[in-house]
Amino acid sequence: MPSWRDIPVYVIDFEGAPKTGVVEYGVVEMRGGGVASTSTRLCRPRDELTSQDTRLHGIAQSDVSDCAPFADEWERFRDWRGGGVFGAHHAAVEQGLLKQQWNYPPASPDYLGGGRVADWGPWVDTRRLYEVVYPGLESYQLGALIERFALQSELAALAESHCPEKRQRAHCALYDALASALLLLRLLAEPGYEDASIGWLLEHSLPSAEKKQAARQGDLFE
């Protein structure tokens, strides 16, 4: 089973809702054990944004009326999935919005079950990984974990380098994707986890992994 460093991991965050679809995406490309590149943009929504939407993510209808729709990103997301795996914090949200736009991609590598599969997953889910490796924390929300593991300064520096000037805070897509990527890098720098296989990450990101009390380091490299 290849090491996580050998397979590109595309850490994704979406801002949006089922009614509006994706109104902003952020993607952090991780290669060789670090951040290789980032991508982000605003997208024209399917339905007009409400004041409640804007309060959550800070994007107003006037900000996105002239933007291209998220549907225009098909080739980019198809190619990313064809060359690696997707990751997110609480990946069910990103999976749901992605499948709302495109139900499935062409057959892509299945790094968990082997062979190929026409699916956006399986995903590397940093929330589930932290629930497994660090059971009993008070909160597994993205911001709470960034604070718990003292990653605020590093996240702020990355955001300043990669995020649009007015999108360098929580509930901005690339900022949150960078936060999830930092959590993954921090976990995989822990003693004994440095050479975890991509299969181990995917297995322990599954819903059934919630039932485990702690990750078994003995199978990290299978």
From TrEMBL:
Annotated Exonuclease domain residues: 8-193
SUPFAM superfamilies from the UniProt entry: Ribonuclease H-like
Pfam families the record matches: RNase_T
Alphabetized CDD domains for the sequence: DEDDh
A biological process from GO: DNA metabolic process
Protein name: Exonuclease domain-containing protein
SMART domains in alphabetical order: EXOIII (SM00479)
Record organism: Cerasicoccus arenae
A GO term, aspect molecular function: nucleic acid binding
